[in-house]
């Protein structure tokens, strides 16, 4: 059974076991950007407003492959290094999700409001925000990654 590729020339290589090749490898790629921002922020190589995404993984070759795929999807990458350093772009760290919003403060307030509603027992109502996205340059992402403090899971607004 062949999967339909979301973009021309992009597909998933399947091994004999049906898993994507390299599935046993652990690499973080698209962890910190909302799916609704992907089509809005994708740009051709060399565009001044091209957005960067962080990647991390223990296999340097896999990180190179991931960076190549992400570039084909319209994004630059910032290689954070081994998976042990992927905490730098986990939920509620400075590089996570909010820098890709046009109004990060409003997005953060919405996340806090969602967390409070969940704690109060309200049913989960998730909708994609009406946000066109804000490009995040590789230089700005590097600065956010370098300066972000570690956020323990217990200290998160949404744990």
Per-chain topology:
Blueprint: E1 27-28, H1 38-41, E2 52-57, H2 60-73, E3 76-81, H3 104-119, H4 138-147
Parallel strand pairs: 2-3
Antiparallel strand pairs: 1-2
Describe the structure.
It is built from 4 helices and 3 strands. With 159 residues, the protein is an alpha+beta fold. It has a domain at 36-123 and 133-148. Strand 2 (52-57), helix 2 (60-73) and strand 3 (76-81) form a beta-alpha-beta unit. The longest helix has 16 residues, at 104-119. The radius of gyration is 17 Å and the shape is globular. The protein starts with 26 loop residues before the first strand and ends in a 12-residue tail after the last helix.
Features:
159 residues; alpha+beta; 3-stranded mixed sheet; 4 helices; globular
| Biggest beta sheet summary | 3 strands, mixed
Order of helices and strands: EHEHEHH
Cα Rg: 17 Å
Class per helix and strand makeup: alpha+beta
Q: Uncertain regions: pLDDT < 50 for 5+ in a row?
A: 1-25
Helix tally equals 4
Proportion in β-strands: 5-15%
- Helical content, roughly? 25-40%
Looking at how many chains there are and whether they match, the oligomeric state comes to single chain
Report how far apart the termini are.
38 Å
The total strand number stands at: 3
Q: What characteristic shape results from the CA principal axes?
A: globular
**Widest sheet: strand ordering:** 1-2-3
Average pLDDT confidence is 83
